[in-house]
Amino acid sequence: MLTAVSCATRDLAPGDRLDAWQRVLSRTFVDVEVTVDRDRPWTGELAARRLGALQIATEDFGPGTILRGARTAAADPRTHILVRRQLAGTALLLQDGRTAELHPGGLAFHDARRPFRIVLPARQRARILMVPRALLRLEERQLHALTATAVDGAEGGAAALLLPLLDGLVDEVTRVTAAGREQLARTVVDILATVALERIGGPPESALWERITASVRARLGEPGLAPQDIADQHAISLRYLHRLFQRQGTTVGAWIRARRLEAAHEELALPGAAHRSIAAVAARWGFTSPSHFSRAFRETYGMSPAQWRRAAGAVQAD
């Protein structure tokens, strides 16, 4: 569902503008207090669209300050993560004892669960994404380390590749079908999660690969083991998980199948496992269908499980 919110203070009487602007920001994002210098001219424009759980807004406002105080945060149940992508002008985002100075092209995360302040020295424009914290699949300690740290594609790394892609996907939202918007929203969240992990110094890819494969080996006997389960266990996006396996020249499903076959192959050769049926060995390593197991085993090893068991027994007897 694509719903829209819009507000322009220039359409209101001067005395009504500040209260109306504070109300629309609080309704669209989270409860905040807005202050402006009444001796300086200011205006505010907001256009927001919601795609299921994800909200995308463009804010044109300043000079002024947006504050979410401790009492407000405690009283407001909304705990989304907000991502500010600066489009024009500058902004200072303060949270958790840090200050991110954002210039056009910069991006920073802030957490609605805790107080924050945004200082806008002059009129500026920003895109703001509001994401349920669970969708980023980051631990609380990771979120606490992420807030008010500026991300800039000019620094290189994943951000240099992903931030322009992020902008393109967001611009595409209104031009695709409802089904396409849902897919775009998931892709946007995956990109944000990847950028966040890189910014906080997530585990090196080699170490992450070792950690993931070790945990998967320990879960080979779970018939329902799925890529999403693995991604959730390691607090990474599903897209990033698939990319890790692709870089190894395989897929998640193919890697799991190969490890299951290896484990069954080894067990069938053990004298101590001779009393177990082939179906029991297959089930032990996550195969729910004995016939499927037998076909996969023959394709991989050139003989049936029974033939391998006999051959292994003959070798051991010699």
TrEMBL record:
Residues annotated as domain HTH araC/xylS-type: 210-311
UniProt keyword DNA-binding, yes or no: yes
Key words, A-Z: DNA-binding, Transcription, Transcription regulation
SUPFAM superfamilies xref list: Homeodomain-like
The name this protein goes by in its record: Helix-turn-helix domain-containing protein
Organism: Streptomyces hyaluromycini
